[in-house]
Design brief:
- The complex is a heterotrimer of chains A (about 180), B (about 100) and C (about 375).
- Chain A is built from six helices and seven strands; from the N terminus they run βαββββαβααααβ.
- Chain A has about 180 residues and is an alpha/beta fold.
- Chain B is mainly beta.
- Chain B contains two helices and four strands, in the order βαββαβ.
- The relative contact order of chain B is 0.22.
- Chain C has about 375 residues and is α/β, with parallel strands linked by helices.
- Chain C has two domains: about 240 residues, Thiamin diphosphate (ThDP)-binding fold, Pyr/PP domains (Rossmann fold, 3-Layer(aba) Sandwich); about 130 residues, Rossmann fold (3-Layer(aba) Sandwich), CATH 3.40.50.920.
- Helices cover about 40% and strands about 15% of the residues of chain C.
- In chain C, helix 9 crosses helix 12.
- The longest helix of chain C has about 35 residues.
- In chain C, about 55% of the residues are buried.
- The chains are: A alpha/beta (about 180), B mainly beta (about 100), C alpha/beta (about 375).
- At the A-C interface, helix 1 and strand 2 of A face strand 1, strand 8 and helix 9 of C.
């Protein structure tokens, strides 16, 4: 079972990301959970959302404290929110940033597996808005191989209708442009 | 198991005789409950003064005042509880309350 | 069987109810039930089902509207949580007294004060004595299945009682997980049209919601109590019918690795699934631990509980609610009462836990089993409270 924690700001679609991932996994015949950090939020406030994906039925209903993957949707959260808390030593951190991997490592004092991608840039170009949730799904798929890219097609269409195509492009670009950095 | 309505006892005594939800299937049977015995005073109508406005009919909380064939509004003493509201509201003062006698 | 899809459980609850050919929904939104209310309104507004959505101004009105609609023979649904359920409190015993088969979804949430929107069972416990059938769900699939079954149970002529389906707020309502919906044809086959015992109609006047004097009130109460106890037969029957038609068999008390267990954990609601993982881990470490899960809370399934705990030395009850200044959590207190005279009954340990949305992990269950070993008496304890 893989556990993923997403960091974003309210209104950036972190909950949509976990929904898309969960739906895609379920369509593939896997078991999945997608849920937000429960509570009242407002636009702009730092939020978290979570996924579990497994080939076996998932019975755990508690929160996720030791994720295998942490995804940071908004670059401004680095240094603001303890995004690496609980991340397993062999886990992967995926950050939306225009900075280099070295700069991120320094800012977070992080030595583990790291993937960076300038999702904001991709989203602006492909979607016209700096909403990075679907874009970052591409980076997650690359870093974890949890699902195939094709599995995302149906949930995106279900959620975005005609907008699915450009979200798919953004996702594919992030998949291609995501830069894995070796452990320091 | 809920009994058929036709099998319901009129005045249930034992717990299993109580109708489901205490439903009452005889419509309007509140009329069986004669509250006239509650009154300590009874309304007396002076037909000379009565202008047949119907204000007493509207105000009676028991809804026991009825219009008779001549258009006068008369309380049904079988239900009248003697509250005196009709006398209090009557404009021409045609209704007075008298002590209920044995 | 329907297609396996991912959906948020709160939305799924509304979709399941929509399959039930309801006539009226009067739902007032409150976190964390709000997705149920919103989606129910969407479904009806979009004309997907032929029903009336009554936009009421409070939960007191929503339950009153449901009672009134149900009295005319309509199949009705409402949903609420926490303070909303507390606001309905005055009407709940009236709905059961009038023998109206209203179905309610309750998104379990802590009761104020202080104000807390997160999951615990503190909202349904004060309604324990209201005479409603009370079911608990453990996962999204159960929410769909039990919501549909609730109508069949409530409307059965041997029952005619309202039924509340408890859904852990946020933990279940806001969880996206794999679900299977029955088809409309399958639900139509399982759940026929309601045949009301009596209806309010000008052509056949009856009086419902009467006044009652001291000389008959006791008999009326026994009649209602007896009806609630007798409803268990129908609940078991409906669970069995569902199992035959859909392949998912439910029991009023579920057990997991309980047969040879020396120590049993007892849960209600979604924490039972997390507890099962804790049981697995403890079993791997060679400890004889098992799990008992109450699906039915009212009427209390005492015979099934006795059978489930037979042979166990310790029963650790996980109470997600409190009765201040009393004997402890409602579930443990209930069980202690029932088992008081039983020879050879297990030692009962009562933990108040998971209050106000405090997360309950696999490690917490293991820790509570450890703590129970050390505990010398049967007083209740707040697990994890910072002293």
């Amino acid at each position: 079972m893989i556990e993923i924690r997403w960091h974003g700001r309210g209104g950036q679609g972190a909950v949509t990301s976990v929904e898309m991932l969960a739906l895609a996994a379920i369509e593939e015949g896997k078991y999945a959970q997608g849920f937000p950090a429960f509570g009242p939020e407002r636009r702009g406030a730092p939020v978290m959302a979570f996924n579990r994906v497994s080939d076996k039925p998932i019975k755990i209903r508690s929160g996720i404290y030791r994720p295998d993957v942490v995804v940071v949707l908004d670059p401004s959260l680095v240094g603001l929110v303890p995004v690496t808390d609980g991340l397993k030593p062999e886990g992967t951190l995926i950050v939306n940033t225009s900075k280099t991997a070295a700069e991120i490592r320094k800012a977070l004092n992080y030595k583990g597996k790291l993937v960076t991608v300038d999702a904001t840039h991709i989203a602006r170009e492909e979607l016209g808005v700096p909403i990075t949730n679907t874009t970052m799904l591409g980076a997650v798929l690359k870093a974890t191989s949890v699902l195939k890219m094709d599995a995302m097609k149906s949930p995106l269409e279900h959620r975005f209708g005609r907008g699915a195509a450009r979200n798919m492009s953004a996702m594919k670009r992030a998949y291609n442009e995501a830069k894995p950095a070796k452990a320091a | 198991m809920a009994k058929k309505k036709t099998e319901q006892k009129k005045w249930p005594e034992k717990w299993h005789e109580v109708t489901p939800g205490c439903m009452v299937f005889e419509p309007g049977n509140a009329a069986n409950y004669k509250t006239g015995s509650w009154k300590a005073q009874r309304p007396i109508l002076d037909k000379q003064k009565c202008i047949k406005c119907g204000i007493c009919y509207i105000f009676c909380p028991e809804a026991c005042i009825q219009e008779d064939a001549e258009g006068f509004f008369v309380a049904d003493l079988g239900y009248c509880k003697g509250c005196g509201i009709c006398a209090h509201e009557c404009w021409p003062g045609a209704i007075s309350m008298a002590e209920e006698v044995e | 069987m329907g297609k396996r899809i991912g959906m948020e459980v709160g939305i799924a609850a509304a979709e399941a109810v929509a399959l039930c050919n309801i006539d009226v929904a009067a739902v007032y939104p409150i976190t964390p039930q709000s997705h149920i209310a919103e989606h129910m309104a969407d479904i009806i507004h979009d004309g997907r089902i032929d029903a009336e959505f009554i936009t009421v101004e409070s939960e007191h009105s929503s339950i009153s509207a449901c009672a009134g609609a149900s009295a005319t023979g309509a199949r009705v649904y409402t949903a609420t949580s926490s303070q909303g359920l507390m606001l309905m409190h005055e009407i709940l015993p009236i709905v059961s007294a009038m023998r109206l088969p209203v179905v309610m979804g309750n998104a379990n949430r802590a009761v104020s004060g202080p104000l807390n929107i997160w999951n615990d069972h503190g909202d349904i416990m004060p309604q324990r004595d209201s005479g409603w059938i009370c079911l608990f769900t453990e996962n999204g699939q159960e929410v769909i299945d039990l919501s549909i079954m609730a109508f069949k149970i409530a409307e059965d002529p041997e029952v005619m009682l309202p039924c509340v389906v408890n859904i852990d707020g946020f933990q279940l309502t806001h969880m996206i997980e794999p679900l299977e919906f029955p088809t409309q044809a399958q639900v139509n086959k399982f759940l026929p049209d309601r045949k009301p015992y009596a209806t309010l109609h000008p052509d056949n006047p009856v009086t419902m919601g009467c006044f009652n004097m001291p000389d008959i009130f006791t008999e009326t109460m026994k009649a209602k109590d007896t009806a609630l106890w007798n409803s268990k037969k129908t609940i078991v029957k409906v669970f069995s019918e569902w199992g035959k038609q859909f392949g998912r068999k439910y029991n009023v008390v579920e057990t997991y690795k309980a047969k040879d267990a020396e120590t049993l954990i007892l849960t209600m609601g979604s924490m039972g699934e997390t507890a099962s993982i804790a049981v697995d881990e403890m079993r791997k470490a060679g400890r004889k631990v098992g799990l008992v899960k109450l699906r039915l809370w009212r009427p209390f399934p005492v015979e099934e509980l006795r059978a489930a705990i037979k042979g166990a030395k310790t029963l650790i009850v996980m109470d997600r609610a409190i009765s201040f200044g009393g004997a402890g959590g409602p579930v443990a207190t209930e069980i202690k009462s029932f088992l008081f005279h039983d020879k050879g009954r297990p030692r009962i340990v009562d933990f108040l836990m998971g209050l106000g949305g405090r997360d309950v992990t696999v490690e917490d269950f293991i820790a509570m089993v450890e703590r129970a070993k050390k505990k010398k008496d049967e007083t209740y304890e707040y697990y994890g409270v910072r002293e």
